[in-house]
Write a structure and sequence with these properties.
The protein is α/β, with parallel strands linked by helices. The chain has helices at about 30-35, 40-45, 55-70, 80-90, 95-100, 120-125, 150-160, 170-175, 180-195, 210-225, 240-260, 275-290, 305-330; strands at about 70-75, 110-115, 135, 165-170, 200, 230, 265, 300. It is built from 13 helices and eight strands. The structure holds glyceraldehyde-3-phosphate.
Length: about 325
Amino acid sequence: MHSPTTTPTDHQLPQAIEPRNPGMELDLDWVRRAQANTSAIERRAKSLPGRRSVKKDYQAAWLLKAITCMDLTTLSGDDTEGRVRRLCAKARQPVRAELLEQLGMPDITTGAICVYHDMISTAVDALDGSGIPVAAVSTGFPAGLSPFHLRVEEIREGVKAGADEIDIVITRRHVLQGNWQALYDEMRAFREACGDAHVKAILATGELGTLRNVARASLVCMMAGADFIKTSTGKESVNATLPVSLVMVRAIRDYYDRTGYRVGYKPAGGISKAKDAVTYLSLMKDELGDRWLQPDLFRFGASSLLGDIERQLEHHVTGAYSATYRHALA
Ligand SMILES: O=C[C@H](O)COP(=O)(O)O
């Protein structure tokens, strides 16, 4: 098993942009064969390295990597244009400029920002010229229980308003009832409504009952053409967890092995500590390799993670300076 004792790969987007996952016909045998050994998964999750196993010199590099892979999010009922504009300013310059200069990464931005439909045009204006994508949650987020034609229409409206990425929510009932055809058809329709915009399928794993259901729903959404699979809305009582993440990234690996298409992964909800971000990055590196450490294939969905990363980077720089100072005095 690898652990993040080296620096992550560079912070640039890969030269070759991945071809989009076109999906495939629903393979019900494959879906039904998908299993998840809960105790083995939980053991593996406990063994994942956290920040302490990252060499100090490399911590800052991993935290900067986490910033570039972040969908900086606000999804609150009291969101305003002002809050979204401040969020976009933070996406453009995630950490104070002097600190980024000291860390040798003056130009990094977050991977994207993520907002409700009503805030898309504000975000598009505020990010103009930055190249930072706007992601919008859609399809009656978070429960996804509004009429089907309205959910499809919401996607179309979101794309028309300028969203680059659409985060849809699946109908949990289809999973709980084992109605894989219905889940496939729904996801396929959502994917088509997105047109050129990328689509992330939010599984709301905290409401799917079992890890086996998570594995099966992941496969069905990828077969129907999801560009990313995402754990949670952030509104369920249980959101992103390491066991669920292991199941989902292994489904991504199986799908890649069979089809040759790389699907992205987005853990979301409740990830607010820098050390947890490093654990997720090391999970991606261990299970899927360096290619999945780029923002086109990995994102955190997080509203408060950036604040903790910024604090840790400040400590890192201060610590490095005091070490140099102590050395000079010795
Ligand atoms: O998709 C993103 C999540 O809603 C963010 O959840 P969070 O507020 O717990 O970070």
